[in-house]
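Researcher: I'm preparing a figure for a lab meeting and need a structural model of a single chain. I don't have an experimental structure, so a prediction will have to do for now. The sequence is pasted below. Please return the structure as tokens so I can convert it later.
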Amino acid sequence: MGVIQRIKKPTTRKGKKVLLSKEPKAIEGPKQCIFLQARNPSEQARNVLKDMYNLKKPDAAYLSRKNDFVPFEDASVIEKLCYKKEAALFGVSSHSKKRPHNIILGRTFNYNILDMIELGADKFKAMSEFHNMKVLAGTKPCLLFNGPAWDLNQDLKRLKSLFTDFFYREKVETIRLQGLEHVLSFTSTQDGTIYVRSYRILLKKSGQRTPRIELEEIGPSIDFKLRRTKLASDDLYKEACKVPRELKPLPKKNISTDAFGTKMGRVHMGRQDINRLQTRKMKGLKKSAEEKKQMLLKKKMAKKEAKKAQPVN
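Model: Understood. Here is the structure written out token by token.
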């Protein structure tokens, strides 16, 4: 059941500004995320959620209060909290005998549940157990998806899209080499295990212009096991991924590409007078004195003929 949205009319200038900021935008910024606790979360599940919150900061909120609900049975609590916090992503931790150390990741569309994927944290090593330097909060990570299963399995394909949404920040036009500091690696195996690793990029001297790159693990280190999924229908997913008309590239006329990738263009030009074209000036093409005299005589003859051709009143 979706959240009932009331029609609000602003009474002040500040209220109008707040409502305008909540409206959908053509170019979205980083998506907000909330992390909350469900029924009987274990210590390991809570720590996994805290480390994911540390990776997502500052575009996240961590709610430590326990909520007595099961997301796959009743998701109204998540929808209400997402509407209240203006969040499009959520993470829920829970624990039971049947599903120990349970982590549920999902996202909403128009404040209704779009996707939910349940993962089990089999092995976990927190960031605090790695005694080394960490990256700054808010650093945009480089995402690596290893293994062919990310493109072959439909559930993993949607999970890849969900991870990309979780750690996506602002759009970057250019990349600076020194700006690449953080790597998140997601490796999928045939038995359904997903290895999540976090590394810090170290640029070492190589004796050349391009530095030698080393990776230092900074945590967290999580082994996820894919469990239940609740995915949106193809029509709803297509509507959620719809690109606004103003962001679609306009087709360029008279431009085509051949089989080899060469761009071909057709240029339309008017009729040109070759005698008036400005060419490169050089002494070899300079007119002689006799040619100049002939040109002057031709101009005088043309003027006389023009005067004779004029009608007499």
